[in-house]
Design goal:
366 residues, mainly beta, Methylamine Dehydrogenase, Chain H, five-stranded antiparallel beta sheet, four-stranded antiparallel beta sheet, 1 helix, globular
Length: 366
């Protein structure tokens, strides 16, 4: 009888909606209650130890990457790119920084140990770049082509091209188990759910309209417990809240004009939201989804994309339409520095960063 009950229990567990396997080949989640537990201050992988801590700023109109020393706030190097760099993206294995140049149709590798650029690789329309959690594929968000392109993470050879039913495909983040990711389509106000292993769009949701312009989703980030996706909506001036297990069910939190980029603090307690059209950063507490602070840039600005320093003390973000970079002291909740860079800086990253592997963008590490 006991053996029979054990078999019944095992059978029921196997069909439980919460029982599922992680994406094959993905490094195991260290803490199911905190997907970012490997990102604690200065928890650097052996792969990146010894790399100089620098800030890499792609200047879209200048076709350059400004390299800044975060200790002196000085530009120490300028790297030329083909034409129109958008983001600087850490590779899955943490060894390379890829510069996405969708205007010139190239990916340019930078060695972050020597701070030197390698040979450009022709890739059509690489607006943004991600990596599957198991490191099997690089994923190019081909915004103009309306494609999600799965590629070899080293050679960038095409493995599969997925046509998407929306316009402006550009940002993404993965579920806790890595089996699916959610993609934002900026120009049609659409969310897509994509099966990672099958490389297939499995669901679509048009966001509700809250403005005359309609929705304009930007960055997306999953909560530390893996239960909630947060989606910045630039034209709605806030973030959409969506359960990870209920695609398309949405609530809204107003944050500020032009909500754009999303960043998880290194203690996993708060979400930083850049409000590009009002020159501020909102701080949302994950535990109760309450806005607890707003940091305003003195004299205004256009905070876009960036990342948090390895020690967790500073938030670096590009000023997209002011040709500058902003540095925020997180504990003080204050903008402490503006640094002039090239024309139209976009997806900057500070590197190296804590974590075991990268999902891409400006440094989504787990």
């Amino acid at each position: 009888m006991k053996k029979f009950l054990v078999l019944i229990f095992a059978f029921l567990i196997s069909f439980s909606p919460t029982a599922h396997a992680d994406l094959p080949g993905m490094p195991p989640v260290l803490d199911k209650n905190d997907i970012y537990s490997a990102d604690r201050p200065n928890a650097l992988s052996d792969v990146v130890k010894g790399m100089p801590e620098l800030v890499y700023v792609p200047n879209f109109q200048s076709s350059t990457v400004s390299v800044i020393d975060p200790k002196t706030y000085k530009i120490i190097k300028t790297i030329k790119t083909k034409k129109g760099p958008q983001h600087v993206v850490p590779s899955w294995d943490l060894k390379t920084l890829w510069v996405n140049d969708n205007k010139g149709n190239y990916l340019t590798p930078i060695n972050p140990r020597t701070v030197t650029a390698g040979k450009d690789i022709y890739v059509h329309d690489p607006y943004n770049l991600y990596f599957t959690p198991n490191g099997k594929y690089a994923i190019v968000m081909a915004e103009s082509d309306k494609q999600i392109v799965f590629r070899d993470p080293q050679t960038m050879a095409i493995k599969k091209t997925v046509k998407v039913p929306c316009a402006g495909v550009n940002h993404a983040d993965w579920s806790l188990d890595g089996t699916f990711f959610v993609v934002t389509c900026e120009f049609t106000g659409t969310l897509l759910k994509v099966d990672t292993a099958k490389m297939k769009v499995i669901a679509k949701k048009d966001l509700p309209s809250r403005s005359k312009m309609g929705p304009m989703p930007q960055d997306i980030k999953i909560s530390p417990d893996g239960k909630t996706f947060y989606i910045a909506d630039m034209s709605s001036d806030g973030i959409w809240v969506m359960p990870a297990d209920n695609f398309g069910q949405l609530n809204f939190i107003k944050t500020g004009k032009g909500a754009h980029g999303l960043y998880v603090t290194r203690d996993s307690k708060n979400l930083l939201i850049t409000n590009r059209e009002e020159g501020s950063v909102s701080v949302m507490r994950f535990s109760d989804q309450k806005l607890i602070s707003k940091w305003k840039i003195p004299g205004g600005g256009s905070p876009d994309m960036g990342n948090i320093s390895a020690d967790g003390k500073y938030f670096w973000v590009s000023g997209r339409y002011d040709d500058e970079v902003y540095v925020f002291d997180i504990d003080r909740g204050k903008c402490i520095k503006k640094i002039k860079v090239g024309n139209e800086p976009h997806g900057l990253t500070i590197y190296p960063l804590p974590g075991r592997y990268s999902l891409g963008h400006t440094g989504i590490l787990r």
